[in-house]
Write a structure and sequence with these properties.
The protein has 273 residues and is an alpha/beta fold. The chain has helices at residues 13-17, 26-37, 50-59, 93-103, 127-136, 164-171, 176-181, 201-212, 229-234, 246-251, 263-271, and strands at 8-11, 41-45, 68-71, 76-79, 84-88, 91-92, 109-113, 117-121, 139-142, 154-155, 157-161, 183-188, 191-195, 219-223, 237-240, 254-255. The radius of gyration is 18 Å and the shape is globular. GO terms for molecular function: magnesium ion binding; phosphatase activity.
């Protein structure tokens, strides 16, 4: 069988495109520019919101190119040159209320993410939420999940945030139907994500591929962590970062160098160009 040319490159951000200092190296920037000059479509695919990706969109100069972002772990797909949302899969505020009512005796916080703001219910943001807000460079804002005017609000995702031990205790109290009927993922120990069942990176990538009339054999995806798993399983040309855990490496066709060794640049040069 003739190997198909890679047309789209989907890149996770944290632990993949970014090194351990949270930077995109010049070598990686130039490699992505080279790929764009060869008409490869660059797609950032991240658990971050669009606002949390803006800095890197500017660095890579993606706004005026045929580029896309998959944001909020697949809740939104944006076409950057038109700034249009081409897919949205949100979650209702009533889910946050349900979770809060079952877990309010635990030392955790219910947080809700839209594309601009990190909302929380409670007295003040806990340490896990403050850390996430700092990384994403986003504002936190209190929201009354019981107030009438807020009942129509929808979010990209709802997070249970705190220590791993306290989150695990809380999960035992949540309705099993929520865990069954929604997409859930541990991305980091201090945060358990709950999203629309249609919101994961793989499903978003399928929708984008259909939109662009690209076959999955023409996609390369690069990632390192648990919320990349479905995306890496979906594509034929899957690449695990050298700093990935063994579960991620096991499901991937290729393994590249680490994020501190320009692993993304190495992978693109070796398997996509």
């Amino acid at each position: 069988m003739v190997k198909k040319m890679i047309k789209l490159i989907a890149l996770d951000l944290d632990g993949t495109l970014l090194n351990s200092q949270g930077k995109i190296t010049e070598k990686t920037i130039q490699t992505i520019k080279k790929a764009q000059n060869m008409n490869k479509i660059i797609t950032l695919s991240s658990g971050r919101t669009k606002k949390g990706l803006e800095e890197y969109i500017k660095i890579l100069k993606l706004n005026n190119t045929n580029s896309f972002i998959i944001a909020n772990t697949g809740s939104y797909i944006y076409e950057l040159n038109t700034n249009q949302i081409i897919h949205m899969a949100t979650i209702d505020i009533n889910i946050a209320k349900n979770i809060y009512e079952k877990t309010k005796t635990e030392n955790i916080q219910i947080c809700m993410y839209d594309e601009e703001t990190l909302y929380y219910y409670g007295d003040k943001p806990n340490e896990a939420l403050k850390k996430d807000a700092s990384i994403l460079k986003m504002n936190t804002k209190y929201i009354d999940i019981y107030k009438k005017e807020n009942q129509t609000k929808k979010f990209g995702r709802i997070n249970i945030m705190g220590t791993k031990e306290n989150i695990e205790k809380s999960l035992k109290k949540i309705d099993k139907e929520i865990l069954k009927n929604y997409y859930t993922v541990w991305n980091i120990e201090s945060s358990f994500e709950i999203l629309n069942k249609k919101a994961n990176k793989a499903n978003a990538l399928k929708i984008l591929a259909k939109y662009l009339k690209i076959e999955k054999e023409e996609i390369m995806a690069i990632g390192d962590n648990n919320n990349d798993k479905e995306m890496l399983e979906y594509v034929e040309n899957s690449v695990a970062m050298g700093n990935s855990n063994q579960k991620i490496k096991k499901i991937c066709k290729y393994t590249t160098k680490t994020n501190d060794q320009d692993g993304v640049a190495h992978a693109i040069n070796k398997w996509a160009l």
